[in-house]
Amino acid sequence: MVNVFIELSRYLLILLIALYTGWNFYYLCSKNEDRRRRVVHLQNAAMFLLHFIANLILYLKSQDGRVVLFYLAQAVFFAAYLGLYGLFYRRLSRLLVSNMCLLLCVGLIMLTRLSFDHAVRQFMVIAACALATWVIPFIIEYMWQLSRFPWIYGTVGLALLILVWLVGNSSSGAQLSLTFAGLSFQPSEFVKLSFVFFVATMFYRSTGRRTVAVTTAVAAAHVLVLVLSKDLGSALIYFVAYVAMLFAATSRWLYLSAGLAGGCGASVLAYALFSHVRVRVAAWLDPWADIDNRGYQITQSLFAVGTGGWFGLGLYQGMPYRIPVVEKDFILSAISEELGAVFAVCLLLICLGCFLQFVLLAVRMEAMFYKLVAFGLGMVYITQVFLTAGGAVRFIPSTGVTLPFVSYGGSSVFATFIMFGVLQGLYILKANDEEEFALEEAKECGL
Q1: Kindly report the CA angle at 36 between 30 and 37, in degrees rounded to 5?
Q2: What tens digit of pLDDT does each residue of 182-213 get?
Q3: Greatest pairwise CA separation for the chain in angstroms
Q4: Is the pTM for the entire model greater than 0.70?
Q5: Cβ distance 176 to 231 under 8 Å?
Q6: Is 133 buried (19+), middle (13-18) or exposed (0-12) by CB count in 10 A?
Q7: Residue 122 to residue 26: CA distance in whole angstroms
Q8: How far is C-alpha 202 from the chain's CA centre?
Q9: 362 vs 397: CA distance, rounded Å
Q10: In 222-320, which ranges are E strands?
């Protein structure tokens, strides 16, 4: 009976994530607020049911009583977070909060399957980050003052990246992190946010040639330091975000073309200068030529995706641990192997839905500063998702980038919480402005 339930659960989990994804885009298309609320309630019900079924399977396969207690702690956290967030911020984007919880939920399920200790650490980080970033939407109401300090964002962020380059800890050939008081963190994850704020404040002030030249020079310095640290994944994210924000601010195709040409030239130069880049490109072009060495990680990822097929093998039925660093860079491959390609595609579509909310909010905002912040953060987010997914299926060379909210890593989770908190603040700010405008119109009409 247990085996029958485990087999059926594969399809039930896929059905639940597919329903959640469909409701996600129905919400984005709907204009009726009551319908939106009902859709979010349905999504939350699907998420909690998916979470329960997956953890039940984890318990049945592992027979570890800790899984039950861990599940209960997670369920209480998600229920409290959804309820209290909506209580304190009544005009928030409920869809965005639900998507955050769904992505975190899937990440914890896979981490529990891969390493219970890692899952517990990740959950503790998630709880702490949720508490620490709770106040961000409230702060954003006074965000206009934040546009007054562009050089603080630019210089502090650049200084942190230089510090990592000089004395940072090395991982897989790249200098990525700093250790302070026994805790290791990755500054580039947080500098992404200060970088977006720097560019937004500069282009809010002016889009003249001098400002563009100065901003481009500082942005190039950020990217150059990341390249010298061999953190090429982050360098690419910064580059794409800057070029997109530059085009959004100026609407000049010349800048976009020059940026793309510069990026292609920089890629060729990086290939010529750095041996580990050549190794990754060679592994991408023909991983089968050296399957036991440089092509091992990507081939194991492809084996996992191919073995899982459309509907997956089921939790604990695959061998995702064969993929090096599977809990970080290649967690999407583990999801594909055990939960199925359909489940993984739905997860990516939910990430796309989050990005669309960033972009739609940027379009709605009237002030250029707010518009650029929302759009820039959206580009950072979706580029990171693309690099993770593309590297896992050999669409692009592996860049060592994590999947936001899903992969293991405290710095990534914290930075993404901040990013989504900023967007929630902007969403609430816009909703308040629209309500005030509607009240003024009603007064003018004598209603």
Answers
A1: 170
A2: 677 788 888 999 999 999 999 988 888 898 89
A3: 77
A4: yes
A5: yes
A6: buried
A7: 31
A8: 25
A9: 31
A10: none
